[in-house]
């Protein structure tokens, strides 16, 4: 006689009965059944990972409804499936390739797609097994994936019909674009944070305004003030002749309630092509739109002599050029705390991996204005950065009347621990900094149009 266990083991009982329910077809629905229909299409979980507590709760509630309707005499159908989460899968595969020292361009489109489908089968299979382990009474013979040919065709057909009926339209709009992922991101895939940055004052004829993105000056199409700001009422409606880095430009002064009269000088530059607030102001006042930063994060042909420069390099160049014109005096700067964004698809502490030592050298050269000597690098181990996602952070230190810039490489999981073996900062004396004793981030690439500590 078999010994009776001293405690209940649900894994044995549940797996046995679930397997029998499946084999007997108890979860299926009959299209020819005379019973009243009842159907739920499962909100498809993404194939990028495993189920979590939210999935467990959501699917339990659906299962309760389906089982209740079955027992109540309905022809109940619960359609299962998984979602593609293409952007997240794309980034995940990019990371896998980076760990191998490769990029998607190295292996080609077909091989990359093959990897994507292979990942879908592996991860999607895990999710389906988890759903079955939960006891979900789905009709598994009808399992679907959002990129299946039938579903893809249905999506295209739906959008074409909506367009033909005038219910959707195509137009220009400000979106979250990531130069690293090379795609648009939803608001859920963008993380907002505060960071220290320079607030640069620039002269626009008789007006002075402040900005944290001087490089977008090349896309300005107006200057705006608040309608009730008496300080600037006499300028509203007038056209200013403004000496600029690309020659004299003509800008109209407009009044719009979106302007905060308490921020900076109460005057803002309007750049409809690169700011959501400015975009809406431009729509209200019929302003033209100039796109001066491209999809690759570099200045476009509309940026004139700055075309081809990385946006951060263009930022420095424009400030320097404006200073020479007398339109941006070197002391007319402040250090402020500003809301910024970063691409959450890469995750807060990740950045594209450094695959070549040349990338690191180029970055250091860009920050310090020259190639660094072996003596200056000291025991800083550049090799530890190769093939790893890492951050480069600059810490400003004030000592004996001089300001030094100290660079530290940080791993994603230890965001402030130096990678160099001795744990010491590397000190440089010839790079100007933003202030005494302040900490700021190196302007690197995190794919969001703002400054970041990620390289």
Number of strands: 18
Q: Strand percentage, roughly?
A: 15-25%
**Assigned CATH superfamily of the largest domain:** Valyl/Leucyl/Isoleucyl-tRNA synthetase, editing domain
The number of domains is 3
- On the 0-100 scale, what is the average pLDDT? 75
Order of SSEs: HEHEEHHHEHEEEEEEEEHHEHHEEEEE
Report how far apart the termini are: 68 Å
What would you call the structural class? alpha+beta
By CATH, the topology of the largest domain is: Isoleucyl-tRNA Synthetase, domain 2
The CATH architecture of the largest domain would be Alpha-Beta Complex
Q: Segments where pLDDT lies below 50 for 5+ residues? A: 330-340, 343-359, 379-399, 401-455
**Which outline best applies?**
elongated
Helix content: 25-40%
CATH class of the largest domain: Alpha Beta
* Rg measurement, Å: 29 Å
Can you count the helices? 10
Fill in the keyword field for this structure:
disordered C terminus, 455 residues, Rossmann fold, Isoleucyl-tRNA Synthetase, domain 2, 10 helices, alpha+beta, 4-stranded mixed beta sheet
Description:
The chain is an alpha+beta fold. It folds into three domains: 155 residues, Rossmann fold, CATH 3.40.50; 157 residues, Alpha-Beta Complex (Isoleucyl-tRNA Synthetase, domain 2); 85 residues, no CATH class. The protein is built from ten helices and 18 strands. The strands form six sheets. Strands 14, 15, 16, 17 and 18 form a five-stranded antiparallel β-sheet that branches. Strands 10-11-9-12 form a four-stranded mixed β-sheet, with helices on one face. The protein has a three-stranded antiparallel β-sheet with strand order 8-7-13, with no helix packed on it. A hairpin with a 2-residue loop joins β14 and β15. The longest helix is centred in the first third of the chain and has 26 residues. The chain is elongated.
């Amino acid at each position: 006689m078999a010994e009776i266990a001293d405690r209940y083991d649900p894994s044995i009982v549940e797996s046995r009965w679930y397997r029998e329910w499946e084999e007997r077809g108890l979860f299926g629905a009959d299209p020819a059944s005379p019973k009243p229909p009842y159907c739920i299409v499962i909100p498809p979980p993404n194939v990028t990972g495993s189920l979590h507590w939210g999935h467990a709760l959501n699917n339990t509630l659906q299962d309760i409804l389906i089982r209740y309707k079955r027992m109540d005499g309905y022809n109940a159908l619960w359609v299962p499936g998984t979602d593609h989460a293409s952007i997240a899968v794309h980034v995940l595969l990019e990371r896998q390739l980076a760990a191998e020292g490769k990029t998607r361009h190295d292996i080609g489109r077909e091989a990359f797609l093959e990897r994507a489908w292979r990942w879908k089968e592996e991860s999607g299979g895990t999710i389906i097994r988890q759903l079955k382990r939960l006891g979900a009474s789905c009709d598994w013979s009808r399992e679907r994936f959002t990129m299946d040919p039938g579903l893809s065709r249905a999506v295209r057909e739906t959008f074409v019909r909506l367009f033909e009926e005038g219910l959707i339209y195509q137009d220009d709009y400000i979106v979250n674009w990531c130069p690293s992922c090379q795609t648009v991101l939803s608001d859920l895939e963008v993380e907002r944070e505060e960071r220290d940055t320079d607030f640069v004052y620039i002269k626009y004829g008789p007006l002075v305004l402040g900005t944290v993105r001087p490089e977008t000056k090349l896309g300005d199409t107006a200057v705006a003030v608040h309608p009730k700001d008496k300080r600037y009422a006499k300028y509203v409606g007038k056209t200013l002749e403004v000496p600029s880095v690309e020659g004299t430009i003509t800008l109209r002064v407009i009044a719009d309630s979106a302007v905060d009269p308490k921020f900076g000088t109460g005057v803002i530059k309007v750049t409809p092509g690169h700011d959501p607030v400015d975009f809406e102001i431009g729509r209200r006042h019929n302003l033209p739109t100039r796109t001066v930063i491209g999809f690759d994060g570099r200045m476009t042909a509309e940026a004139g002599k700055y075309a081809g420069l990385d946006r951060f390099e263009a930022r420095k160049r424009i400030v320097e050029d404006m200073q020479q014109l007398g339109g941006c005096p070197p002391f007319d700067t402040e250090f402020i705390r500003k809301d910024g964004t970063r691409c959450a698809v890469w995750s807060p502490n990740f950045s594209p991996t450094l695959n070549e030592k040349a990338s690191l050298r180029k970055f250091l050269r860009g920050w310090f204005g020259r190639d660094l000597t072996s003596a200056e690098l000291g025991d800083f181990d550049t090799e530890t950065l190769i093939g790893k996602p890492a951050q480069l952070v600059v810490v400003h230190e004030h000592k004996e009347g001089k300001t030094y810039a100290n660079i530290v490489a940080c791993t994603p999981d230890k965001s402030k621990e130096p990678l160099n073996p001795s744990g010491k900062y590397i000190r440089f004396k010839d790079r100007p900094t933003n202030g005494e004793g302040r900490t700021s981030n190196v302007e690197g690439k995190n794919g969001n149009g703002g400054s970041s500590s990620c390289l």
